[in-house]
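--- STAGE predict ---
source: upstream dedup step, 1 unique chain passed
mode: sequence only
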Amino acid sequence: MKVQVEAEPAGSATIVWEALPRSVRRWLRCCRSLPKELPTEPPANSALQHLLAMKFWNGAYGVCISSMLLYYVTYVLHLSSWQRVQVIVGAGTAAGVTEAVMNLVYVHLFTRDDSLRDMAGKSDRRLLRIVVSFRLVNACLTFILIGVLEPSVFLLFVWSVITRMGLCSFSFWRISAQCWLVDEDCMSRCVDGKSRQNKREGQIFGALSMSQILAAAIFSSLTFLGLGLAGLETENCEASCSVGGSDGVSTCIDDCFRHVIDRQPESLRAYVRFVIGFFAPLCELLIAYHAYKFPIKNARLRKLYLTKAAERGDMGLTETNEATSVDAYSAKSQIVLLDKASADLADVSSDPLESFHAADFQHRVVHTVEMIGGACRARRASISVRFARSPGHSRCEAQGGSGEAVTAVVPDATPTPSRCVNL
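--- STAGE serialize ---
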């Protein structure tokens, strides 16, 4: 008797399986089992979806630029021999120096604020806005400089410098987003529903690398296949010039290679410009879209920061605010939470902080930031928030910098002793 065992995805395939839409997963299971045996599929992991897609198009962009740049210098700019070497080395040096300098600028820009204590999330939003904006600007400039304007060595140098000014900032967000995804996965429950945390860092990073390498393999093959379809004609000049002395062979090879460049059809030059000037900017637009739609941001990212801080035992955030010029409990870029318990809970424990639940407190912090921030967004006012607990609910009163008060009632959670935290 044969027993058929349905194999589940393993390794990096498990991560990719979670990113597939629920309808696709159900259809794939239908191909292997009866509909009545299908398990309930959870919703797709949107953060994983966008990051896998971003890595895929980033791999496509990188391989298209790297594989076509030599053909652009050779067949579009009509450069050969020593001139081609000079242009490639010069453009590469200019791009490398630009990236090294801009990395120092971005390190100072992106690390001047502590994201854990930036409860408004300004530093993270600034990082996202900068990388998305530079991707959009770089796509437009590549389209204009490579795809529209008449090709020249000067424009190639300008493009090499401008692109590195914007693209090197994307590495900061890309690495941060991967770490956010891994941290959130580690803080969640396992797929099997057990209480232990996920330990799948290697699988997640492997799936992301697989997505990028897969795109590089696919589009590398397609771009080189397109060269032949566009009419590329090659010749072994060394074999053709094997007769004569060393000086004669060198001159013959140069003349032969120049003849190969000049006889290429215009369709080949148009194809090379299309890949760099049209398809590569399209990949950048898709990268910018998936980066902007990446859902781990704002309140969700604040919650992740606070959860990781609580896991490390780093809940003493009040110490860092003492060095600032802003007084505690004033309505200037601070949120103050006063958690009062009823009188009959005062003697629950000899330690007043023993029954304090960090997870509940973090949830209320994130909820308050999102709620009050939405109410005061139009006025852009700084706010001060107090929680006063009564049986069954909590009353949240916020005083904005403009003097207007915002009041809301939130569901009561597990009662906690008196606790005041200045964030």
